[in-house]
Amino acid sequence: MTDSGDSVTGLPEPGGGGPGVLDGMRVLRLCSVFEPAALSGRSARYDAIGGMQNHTAELSRHLDTMGARQLVLTSRLDGPAGRAGFGRRGQVVRTGVDTRLARQAWAPLAAPLALGCGPVDVVHGHCGEDVAVLPLARLAARRHRCPLVITVHASVRHNMRVTSARTAWLRLAGGPAERRALAAADMVIALTRPAADRLAGEGIPDSRIRVIPPGFDPDLFAAAADAPDPFPDLGRPRVGYIGRIAPQRMSAR
């Protein structure tokens, strides 16, 4: 895949990451999960820590240093609903009811903000297991007459294994919505090269696909490099697995 130099969304291409490069750009981010405001004894039951949570938070932090003004709409998880500042210019609005079901119905409660806020320069939706995100992102982009960017973290069509009535419904309802949203997006971001190839194989033009691996803050791990081995009695080589234990996350078939 070769980049043309100018993004179809009007966003700078990777490499121009200096402070102020996005000065004033207004980003509406829609994600079913985000870095929690705080952790508690209930957090594990609400899927508070994970790949999308880390990805969306680190991306938002980096764009904040680049000058973007962001409004992040997400679920409340096990914390309270409400609005909070994020970085120097951003805000995170957490919505939903205090339940573990249906992602806390956060999306219908966030819809008035997604459609009523403005002006917006780009809508960025994060595709996962929540089937409400992408239709809402499409509506918001249409309402604000701005480009739509979608990052594919997981696919209900490809990653969702049917193990219950719930997962069967998610595939049935979410599959068509996912397909339509990806086809309508101005840019689709995949986390891996194989995922990008699969998108291209489904008919998304190569010029609208980018591969951007999940980001992280290396400073968080710098101290661990010199730390003593936490498993001195465990031989090498070692393979570690960190993730939510769910059928769609299992690497073995």
Secondary structure elements and their pairing?
Elements: E1 26-30, H1 51-65, E2 69-75, E3 82-86, E4 90-95, H2 106-116, E5 122-127, H3 133-144, E6 148-152, H4 165-184, E7 187-190, H5 193-201, E8 209-211, H6 219-222
Helix pairs in contact: 2-3, 3-4
Question: Would you give an account of this structure?
Answer:
It is a single chain. This protein has helices at residues 51-65, 106-116, 133-144, 165-184, 193-201, 219-222; strands spanning 26-30, 69-75, 82-86, 90-95, 122-127, 148-152, 187-190, 209-211. By secondary structure, the protein is α/β, with parallel strands linked by helices. Strand 1, helix 1 (51-65) and strand 2 form a beta-alpha-beta unit. Helix 2 (106-116) runs parallel beside helix 3 and helix 3 (133-144) packs parallel to helix 4. The chain is globular, with a radius of gyration of 19 Å. The two termini are 30 Å apart. The relative contact order is 0.13. Residues 1-16 have low confidence and may be disordered.
Based on CA inertia axes, which overall geometry fits?
Answer: globular
Query: Could you say how many structural domains there are in total?
Result: 1
CATH level 3 topology: Rossmann fold
CATH superfamily: Glycogen Phosphorylase B
| Overall residue-averaged pLDDT value | 84
Structural class: alpha/beta
Quick one: how many beta strands?
8
Beta-strand content bin = 15-25%
Q: How big is the Rg?
A: 19 Å
Roughly how many Å apart are the termini? 30 Å
